[in-house]
Design a protein that fits this description.
homodimer; 357 residues; alpha/beta; CBS-domain; Tetracycline Repressor, domain 2; 2 domains; 4-stranded mixed sheet; 3-stranded mixed sheet; 65% helix
Chain lengths: 357, 357
């Protein structure tokens, strides 16, 4: 294709451009092996035209290009200077509607948005979305166009980015597929299951710590999964919302305090409602008002723990420059289990004479 | 705009087309209130040209249209018959490269993919992605073009669809935002917290069922959160993978059996590894080989329960024509809690004399 670009350029310009194009051609194959850079999205179909030609010369070049490549969907051309640096774009409709004897420089759009080779896919996707563009040139260090990202590829990026977010939260490798290889799945999930085991043991330690309380009032055991389960679900609700908001770029760093207050408040409201419900159930079931009080209070407190940890875990990970979603569900459920049990069994220990009395 | 379309048509055709366009114009505003249909994505910018004109007539109409609307990004025109029915498309590049005296019918693409008004956004997104198209006409019952979906809107659909999947799994309303209104969040999350409460109580009932076993060996209590926590995380791993695979259209209905076998097998492998680990920890900690055996066996079994329920819940919901993600995390963690405790405390009851002996 480089040859065709040059055919439309004056000879002296062509020589210089040829040099740049060759340099660019050297860069492209090298990059094709990278996985996460813009190079992985490249399609070789673009038209680059020298900025000094007229509209009529540009149109005739487009005809020549189309005869060679049969492109039925040419919508835009890139304009380059002597060094192969992109200086502007022109849409086919602009060229068709312009006067043939005008210079393309009169109609071209000079605000060219481009990305460097090796730019992260997600960043590329975000730029295309923000600027509402369907084609984004990829340029090398010298600002020479080397390839093109088209919007079709970007849709896949958005789909996979969201999938990755979900997988990472729960400790599933981003490349794992439902019907993929068996041992790939083992490698993907087993490490996080082992991490979770360590954290679950921590919750077990808390129970052991209060073993004498449990022996005195074994009815307490029935509410362990209730306190832990509610805290886990509530914490994961908050967490999911925040991980996704960060991914969609909806959450500025300065909002941390407001977010924390909101989620603590929600935890309080949810905790009061669920706490009253579970206290009622506990009283009706076990007939012990003090047990009901302890269960209700612990529930309310743990719902607040859930809200706060659902905010602090992802924001903390982000502050540490770690992916805010990374196995965050494991961290949040650990917090709600451990702190939830400490509050529940701690309160029960304080009120044990009332409970068993 | 209808007037401009008609200016390019012969008078007799124009009268008939005018009628259809008026009918179409009646349809559009009615639909603008729907939330999830294609109408919500409509942009009024498209060019419809009668199929019997020549390339030169079409180009001159495009120029007239562009003078009026200043469109710098015309890339495609739609060709319509006397009734306003879309019969084909032609890209601007095809028109530019064709001979001016040819009929557009000679160069037009007759395979027009379109969607009916009111088509679900996700279906629209999937069609555009599958066929790699940037603009999709929306047609009414009589197959008359009434509007256009452009790919830019579709990117948002993909982003939000993935977000919705994540939110639905955990019982968060799809419209909720991290910094959105407080009471909106309460309405979004509290209902599922109450559903989860009911299911957590079920797990508590299982513990009460085995209360006499617990009294005889209170050390059993320490492993309740370990059995439940591991099952919950493992089940959610499987679930997330499958919900996402269904959403991405990677999972045909016929694959259920293969998926179930794979996840049961994974549960077994993960269960053996995690079971051995936790049995070792239990033995080192409590110094009771029978307790260690019960904990290890229950862990292995519950990891299989996690794998199987992680498959059955979303596939079951899909078979019932319910969204496969709907609060599925709540359902899966309930299964792993309830069945996990039944297995763990059931085994402990069978072996209680050995454990306390």
């Amino acid at each position: 294709m480089a040859a065709d670009v040059l055919r439309a350029l004056p000879q002296d310009v062509a020589d210089s451009a040829l040099e740049s194009m060759e340099a660019a051609a050297e860069v492209a194959p090298l990059m094709a092996y990278e996985d996460d850079g813009a190079v992985g999205l490249m399609t070789p179909e673009f038209i680059a035209i020298h900025e000094t030609v007229t509209v009529s010369q540009a149109m005739s070049f487009i005809r020549t290009w189309a005869e060679e490549y049969g492109a039925a969907n040419i919508s835009q051309v890139f304009l380059v200077d002597n060094d192969g640096v992109v200086t502007g774009t022109a849409s086919l409709s602009q060229l068709v509607l312009a006067r043939p004897f005008h210079d393309v420089s009169l109609i071209m759009n000079r605000d060219v948005i481009s990305v460097a080779t090796g730019t992260d896919q997600k960043e590329v996707a975000r730029i295309m979305k923000r600027h509402d563009i369907h084609r984004l040139p990829v340029v090398d260090d010298a600002n020479r166009i080397v390839d093109m990202v088209v919007i079709d590829d970007i849709i896949d990026v958005f789909e996979h980015e969201a999938t990755e977010d979900m997988f990472r939260m729960i400790g599933v490798d981003q490349g794992e597929r439902a019907l993929g290889p068996f041992w790939r799945s083992v490698r993907s999930r087993l490490p996080w299951l082992c991490v979770n085991l360590a954290t679950a043991i921590a919750a077990g330690l808390v129970i052991t710590l209060y073993q004498s309380t449990m022996i005195q009032a074994v009815a307490l055991a029935a509410f362990l999964p209730v306190i832990a389960g509610q805290g886990g679900i509530a914490g994961t609700q908050t967490l999911t919302l925040i991980v996704r908001s960060i991914a969609l770029g909806e959450l500025a760093t300065g909002n941390a305090k407001r977010l924390l207050l909101k989620e603590a408040g929600l935890g309080l409201i949810h905790g009061i409602v669920v706490g009253l419900l579970v206290a009622g159930i506990a009283f009706a079931w076990k007939g012990n008002p003090w047990l009901a009080l302890v269960v209700g209070l612990a529930m309310t407190a743990n719902m607040m723990v859930a809200g706060v940890s659902g905010v602090l875990v992802p924001l903390g990970l982000r502050a540490l420059k770690i992916d805010p979603g990374l196995a965050s569900a494991v961290a949040v459920t650990t917090a709600t289990d451990v702190i939830g049990f400490l509050i529940y069994l701690g309160l029960a220990t304080l009120m044990i004479t009332l409970i068993v009395g």
